[in-house]
Target: Gfo/Idh/MocA family oxidoreductase
Amino acid sequence: MAEEPLKAIFVGVGGRGRHYLEHLKDSPHVRPVAIVDISREILERERLANGLPETACFTTLTDALRHIPADTVGVTTHARLHAQFVREAILAGKHVLVEKPFTCDLEEAVRLVELADAHGVKIVVTQQIRYFRTELTMRRMMLEQAYGPPGSGHMHHYKPRSGNYPLSDHMQLWQMTVHEIDSLLSVLAQHKVTRVFGYSFEPSWGNWPTPSTAVATIEFDGSIPFTLVSTSQARGSAYEFRIECAEATLVQRGPLQDIPTTLHAEYQDGRVVPLPLDAGIDVEPGDGINWVARLLYEYVVDSVEPDVSGRHNLDILRVADAIIRSTETGQAISLDVPS
Model:
């Protein structure tokens, strides 16, 4: 593998983007060399915090691409702006590391994957929860059928966020539920989604500008249904990911505010057995950022396509899109998800 990290321009560094700068400034895989933001105050703050020169600060990606030699563009703007910056980076021949969601529109994401292929560049989406120790352990157990085949299950996440996400259509679905869909699809990797019946909505007492809650029944091949409840306008915090298998129930519990790290097998006779966790990402924010940066590096340098490539991320967006279409039609949506 090459010794030099990928040189990256980061767009949108006032929110989540500042965490990328903090945790990647000494990375052996992806190294920030320039930053872009519409706020000069934010640019100055992040320049000083991360040891960048004034010449590395820009208010448009176009100017940064014109003046800074780089391999990669990191897109950490508000979700509704992802697509335009991903497209500009691809057309400039740069690889892309983009925060979730990849885009807020399935068809647009498909076009961007095709465009990246045509320009010979790679896309990686920061969907890091699938690499948490709990998720990796559950995934392995499902692949090994440690407790027999799955029959049904649920994922319920009640998050008491203090306010709404940055404005987008179906903001909960695109800016949080995509994480949960990704986790579910990762753990059940040996199965494909066949049908989705869902509802993206705002509670009668809610005050978000677009839906803060999504519920769905997601059916996998073999007639394996899972129910999903995802909200960031809860009044209390709770999280449970439960899989009913032939021989035991596999249960992950905890408040996802702090990321759950407990995993148990529960039996009909009342036994509850704590399970050791496989190696993976811990709860520190930098762990996920560095993990995904390494995956992008290996994708670019060694052509090892990760599960979180733009192409693979389309599976998550297809389910999110199906929930929206089901909301609009009141009908279950059948999916033919490519392998």
In short: The chain has a mean pLDDT of 95.
